[in-house]
Fold this protein.
Amino acid sequence: MQERYSHILEQWFIMEPPLFQVLCVHELVANTQMKCPLRSGRRKLEYNPEIVVEMSDDALEEALRAEAVRLLMKHPYERRPDGCSQQAMGLGSNLVIGDNYSHPRFHIETPQDFNLKRGMSFEWYAREIEKQQDSSSSDDSDDPENESPNGGGGTGNSDKHRDLAELWDEDDMTVQLINGIISSTKQWGSIPGNLAELLTSSLRAKINWRNIFAGFRASIISSKRKLTRMRPNRRTGFDNMGSVRRFDTKLLVAVDVSGSISTESLQYFYGVINSAFRYGFESIDVIQFDHGIRAVHNLKKVVKDVAILGRGGTSFQEPIDYAHENGYDGLVMLTDGYAPPPTIPDGFKTGLLWVCENQECLNHHKSWMEKSGRTCVMELG
């Protein structure tokens, strides 16, 4: 394997710079216990020599291409999709690769194999695969109807897909290393334009929610300006004549406590709320919601321990209606976005800010969220 691997890398040195570089920062390690031919994570590229020896050189090269693309997408090193098994994650990752990069000599699943739409994120595919697994869990594992048309799905390959994600773990240092490879790439080789765009888009600076939060507060305060019959101010002259601002901004923060939100994300959500006090909010109303409103709190200081209620499905309609009915100036929705878009009531005057837990969630939901308010990514630290 070492000789075949070195020969492929030598060819890639000139023709496939990003694939070459990302594999070079991973140690090649043999592992006869795994069910898949190749897998990556923890700065290792593992292979099963008993499987690889049966592969042609062309098939091995395409398998390595697939694994290199997976690494460039950073699937093994970013936060795992909440509520998804290793099998769903491994298969979800394959669907993104199969959807964006052709491998005619090495089979890798595509969204069509599972009747899923194209162009979605790794996290979305992992969730959908998890749903399919849950719905078929009571079926016979040997039933051919559980297999995908190309043999990629169902329980027959469950060990392979589970093993594929065995080494995956969050690693910010490796993410930054891979980002450096992507940002320095000028020649993409066999990577098609749409995939290159997908990779480079992952480098774009996340929206700084702190700036948006501060601007959001300013916008809803400025909307409270009302006409008066004031005389010109001695210091500001005519600039402020005829108007005054009220600084009693009424803010509501809605925290998604549905089952798709991890405990870690809930801690981040309340970190966002605590940070809001830095921007001059003296009091913040907080509601917890899933498919209904589960708790209502009025916070006047930073909170450390909060009891979480709910953990069911998700509906945005309840917090939208609650904000509208109670006359809030601003509503901040902390969520992963996985629920039907809400219906905005007639006469809805509440400023709405959608804060998604990560960039992947924002990319998936941004198109409908922006129809009702502003959007940003939760980014603590």
About this structure: The chain has two domains: 2-201, 209-225+241-377. The chain has a mean pLDDT of 81. The CA atoms of residues 184 and 282 lie 46 Å apart. The radius of gyration is 25 Å.
